[in-house]
Amino acid sequence: MAAAKPVYNRVLIKLSGEALMGGNGRLGIDPATVDQICKEVSEIAHMGVQVALVIGGGNIFRGLSASARGMDRVTADYMGMLATVINALALQDYLERYDVQTRVMTAIKMEELAELFIRRRAIHHLENGCVVIFGAGTGNPYFTTDTAATLRAIEIEADVIFKATKVDGVYDKDPIEFSDAVKFDNLTYMDVVQKRLKVMDTTAVTLCMENNLPILVFKLKEPGNLKRVILGEKLGTKVSGE
Predict the structure, then answer these.
(1) Cα-Cα-Cα-Cα dihedral sign, residues 151, 34, 28, 125
(2) What is the CATH number of the domain that holds 28?
(3) Distance CA 229, CA 180 (A)
(4) Tens of pLDDT along 108-139?
(5) How confident is the model at residue 3 (pLDDT cuts 50, 70, 90)?
């Protein structure tokens, strides 16, 4: 019997910085957690799926919260961008332990650490089997890593954005706090905006809507979930124009 084939050719996975923290709640990078995530990503990369990643920096520094405490917003956002590069380098290190060629590309020049993002070069790396990790957001303050992920996904012509979260989809309210929270299997972009659902920020959702780019929200830390969604199993919540 032939092995199941991926239903997506090129995907972008959006991870929060907090996804790298592990279960102890401490800020920073938990090596075991990073290893588990990279193992999951390596499995789909070895299946021939072209994979790009965007990682936040909230496990190290969150620009918006620092700004709220009195720091200059632009300075705080640039510090947050640097935090995403630290996380990108950690992902690169662990992915390469699973025999996955990777490239870190950043929106801010830092030649000793990573390549500067150039769209055609990023697509070339993907077509040659490299996992490409995009760091430093969009390179501009006031834009979230959700928006950066959407922008990069559109630029590389990804089939879908995978939004990896702590829960198994999108709910009408926080399922961790409320036992009666209702999960959505499918949503439209306008549902997300009008219901103010915390999928991605409004700018990111609007970009997805304008470019007909679906978002699939699911729980990454459940072993095997990433492979299951790649093979077309219905997990989590799909956000699309339908």
Answers:
(1) negative
(2) 3.40.1160.10
(3) 26
(4) 999 999 999 999 999 999 999 999 999 999 99
(5) low
Written as six digits, the tokens of 89 are 């380098």
* pTM of full prediction above 0.85: yes
Can you read off the two tokens belonging to residue 139? 């390179």
Q: Is 47 left (phi over 0), alpha (psi -120 to 50) or beta?
A: alpha
CA distance 25 to 59: 9
Calculate helix-pair angle for 119-127, 145-155, nearest 10 degrees.
70
Q: Which residues of 159-193 are buried (b: 16+ CB within 10 A; e: fewer)?
A: bbbbbbbebbbbbeeebeeeeeeeebeebebeebe
Strand pairing report for 102-106 and 160-165: unpaired
Residue 75 in tokens: 């300075």
What total number of domains does the chain contain? 1
Residue 222 lies in a domain: no
Report residue 237: phi and psi, to 5°.
Answer: -130, 130
Residue 75 forms part of a structural domain: yes
pLDDT greater than 70 at residue 2: no
> Per the domain annotation, does 217 fall within a domain?
no
d(CA 62, CA 113): 21
Is the separation of the CB atoms in 149 and 204 below 8 Å?
yes
55: tokens are 């990682």
196 part of a folded domain = yes
Nearest-CA neighbor of 13 among 191, 190, 203, 152? 152
Residues 61-90: tens digit of each pLDDT:
876 677 777 889 999 999 999 999 999 999
The single-letter code of the amino acid at 191 is: D
